[in-house]
Amino acid sequence: MWVAVILAATLVVGAAVQGLVGLGLGLVAAPVTTLLEPQLMPGLLLWLAFLLPVITLVRDHHQIDWRGLSWALPARVPGTAIGVVLVSWFSARELGIAVALMVLASVLVTLRSIELSVTRPILLAAGLVSGIAGTTTSIGGPPLAILYQHRPPTQIRSTLAVYFLCGAGLSLVGLGLAGSLNRATFLLAAAMVPCLFLGFAVSRLLHRAVPAHHIRGGVLIVCAASAMALLVKSLLV
Asked: How far apart are CA 91 and CA 207, in angstroms?
């Protein structure tokens, strides 16, 4: 029972963070879920990551960068396929370390306000890496979020929401075809849906307290913190 309570609280926090800065559900909840109930990963968070963007898009559906998505999303398809294969080849520890180091390196590259050009090759690379990371660990947001960190907050949230919706769907299809999903995880995800609504409601309150120019810092902090948590968890397994 206490495990379910901790998971629910973590999902509320993750949904609140994602509602504020555009990503956060997987970043916050994945390390905790992996520590408490590793068999729920990545299925539980992928089901929830498929629903939360729908809630987000009800509020933030303006300034979506469809041009960028038209390059990043197709690249997620081969990334998803690679991720499905890696899930069967490598241990959760090895995948966790690789993803954590990748995210930390990306944050360090952009820490000094270096603005990466959102070009086609970079979008393709971000989509590919995101597909691999999202399918293996449910943490697929940082590659694209780091590219969009200098954009207006509404564009960050709305563009990432569309990307997460399509990306989580692709990962679920891939894992389903590989036989890596189960009914019990889906039912638990359905029971946790109210946590998403609660967290999203909290994010609406936070919008009034957090200035727009602090959103970039929030994106980088969430990415770095989640990567450190995933790295520590993976090293201790």
From this structure: 39
Q: What confidence category does residue 187 fall into, taking pLDDT thresholds of 50, 70 and 90?
A: very high
C-beta separation of 184 from 39 below 8 A: no
Is 153 in contact with 203 (CB distance < 8 Å)?
Answer: no
Specify whether the CB–CB gap between 202 and 19 falls below 8 A.
yes
Rounded average pLDDT over 37-54: 88
Counted domains in the chain:
1
How many Cα atoms occupy the beta-carbon half-sphere of 162 within 13 Å?
A: 18
- For every residue of 155-190, DSSP letters joined together read HHHHHHHHHHHHHHHHHHHHHHHTT---HHHHHHHH
Tokens representing residue 89 in the block: 């080849």
Q: Is-contact 103 45, C-beta < 8 A?
A: no
Domain that holds residue 73: 2-236
pLDDT at 166: 92
Q: Is 17 in a helix, a strand, or coil?
A: helix
Q: What is the pTM (predicted TM-score) of this model?
A: 0.79
Instruction: Report the alpha-carbon distance of residue 219 to residue 6 in Å, rounded.
Output: 24
